Prior knowledge:
Structural class: mainly alpha
Order of helices and strands: HHHH
Number of domains: 1
Subcellular location: Cell membrane
Number of strands: 0
Transmembrane segments: 21-44, 64-84, 117-136
Distance between the termini: 41 Å
Shape: flat
Low-confidence stretches: none
Strand content: under 5%
Organism: Photobacterium rosenbergii
GO cellular component, one term: plasma membrane
Largest sheet: none
Protein name: Phosphate-starvation-inducible PsiE family protein
Amino acid sequence: MKIDSNDVLSAKLQVxxxxxxxxxxxIMVFVIVMGVLDVAWILYQRLITPPQYILTISxxxxxxxAFMAVLIAIEIFINITIYLRENVxxxxxxxxxxxxAIARKVIIIDVEEMEVAYLYGIAAVVxxxxxxxxxxxxxxxxxHLEE
Length: 147
């Protein structure tokens, strides 16, 4: 039996991709740790700035934004580890990560500084991502009911 050279090349390329994804997971852990340190640093700086030990609304929004960025990094890490385990990208998890990212944007947005068109764009993204996420959760139920 003759081995197709394309299969050998594909297998070698798959190994390279697998190691690249492993490297990304290691880098993502570093990003997460640095993000946690950044959240702690931001919180510390906000607490020592007069008035001391009091967080203003803008301080809380900045802290929430930093928290959400770390949570998004954790979600991306989860996507990477699932890909390493199963060699498949799960659309539900990717959509959940995207929803979290757009939620972060909505939480930290300063509506007084934004143009109306930008706000409509954000609203369109939130709506479309929400509908897409809902549909992804509904599809398995409908196919399960049809069986």
